[in-house]
Write a structure and sequence with these properties.
alpha/beta; elongated; two-stranded antiparallel ribbon; Trna Endonuclease, Chain: A, domain 1; 360 residues; six-stranded mixed beta sheet; single chain
């Protein structure tokens, strides 16, 4: 292979990616502006639904090259504006710009007034970092501002495709994350803040199509075959290292079911798979593996290894008792082989918020 031209290929690829990103930013801002403009016209009764239909017909007739501006598309732009007009995502940028205006004594205009009323420019917000199709998926499927912002930020962080985003919404990632964080297990203080958002209380593996019952070997081999989807469920910071990772202690060999490295936490992550309900004795084996990894595998610049015990089911109180005296950074998570009941999770989330409000 000729390596002389690698650099120039990288320059071209990066430039093209930047161009696509810039086009997307302008497109999202355009849809926002159009939605804001028409919303303003409708709100003062200057326009009606019939006018929107006339606008769509006018664009189709006179500018047929402009795609996406049919009646449905225009109302999606209005919905986009209505959804985020008062959200913190937009107002935060407005506040930052106004603050910069005061600090520098320069004219910094956070809005555009050429239409006779204020329209917020959103090119510097996180809204402009995902595609229009991502937005359509989010504001059509998510009901609350918190849920919408969660999936926007996850789409940016994990670089979700639209299909991956749709799957995560179906898998109730938002509800599972909030509920999981609310019952973060007892961990050494130096780890708790960092790993709360890196691991989940439950994982969904509906893509494995496993029979019931199934063995630990079935689960392990299924995850290996579907490693890409498994990584998407875990999070893109996880790097798969090996299955049945061999540890030598004395004259004996031991094997970690699945070994990963987490880029953000800069540590090894050992997964142990159990196809039954959590039992306290499972922790002893996992803690032994973590000790071996830290002594013999971990590099000096890396953080202590983390263990994840992945069980078919668990009793949270039993887990709390079992972990209360553990000094190792260990998570006990459960896995599901079918998509969760979203309504049930939303009910649990509502109960969590209600109980939180009652304590105040």
């Amino acid at each position: 292979m000729n390596n002389r031209f690698t650099d120039i290929i990288q320059i071209i690829t990066q430039s093209r990616a930047n161009a696509i990103k810039a086009v997307n930013t302008e497109l999202i801002n355009l849809y926002w502006t159009v939605g804001a403009y028409i919303k303003q016209k409708l709100s003062v009764a200057e326009w009606g639904d019939k006018t929107v239909d006339e606008l769509a017909d006018f664009i189709k007739k006179n500018n047929p090259d402009l795609k996406g501006f049919n009646r449905r598309g225009i109302y999606r732009m209005i919905q986009f504006y209505e959804t985020y007009a008062e959200s913190l995502i937009v107002s935060a940028v407005r506040t930052q710009l106004q603050h910069a205006d005061k600090q520098s004594n320069k004219v910094v205009t956070p809005v555009r007034t050429q239409f006779g009323f204020q329209i917020q420019d959103i090119r510097n917000t996180i809204l402009a970092q995902i595609s229009w199709t991502h937005h359509r998926t989010i504001f059509s499927r998510c009901k609350t501002e918190e849920e919408r912002e969660f999936y926007i930020r996850m789409s940016v962080k994990e670089n979700y495709s639209v299909r991956e985003l749709d799957r995560q919404i179906s898998a109730s990632l938002f509800e599972r994350t909030i509920l999981g964080n609310a019952k973060t297990p007892t961990l050494p203080k130096e780890f708790k803040a960092d790993i709360t958002n890196a691991f989940k209380d439950s994982y969904v593996f509906e893509f494995l199509n496993l029979p019931e019952p199934h063995s630990e070997n079935d689960l392990q081999k299924g995850l290996i075959r579907q490693m890409k989807k498994f990584i998407l469920e875990l999070g893109r910071d996880f790097i798969f290292m090996d299955e049945e990772y061999k540890l030598q202690v004395g004259n004996s060999d031991f094997y970690v079911d699945l070994l990963f490295y987490h880029r953000g936490l800069q540590c090894l992550v050992a997964f142990e798979l159990k196809t039954d309900k959590f039992k306290p004795e499972y922790l002893g084996q996992l803690n032994f593996y973590l000790e071996s990894l830290d002594r013999d595998v971990k590099k000096e610049n890396e953080n202590p290894s983390i263990g994840v015990l992945l069980c078919k089911d668990k009793d949270s109180e039993v887990v709390e008792y079992a972990l209360s005296r553990s000094l190792s950074p260990t998570m006990v998570s459960e896995y599901k082989t079918q998509l969760p009941n979203k309504k049930l999770l939303q009910q649990k989330l509502h109960e969590l918020f209600e109980s939180g409000n009652g304590e105040k």
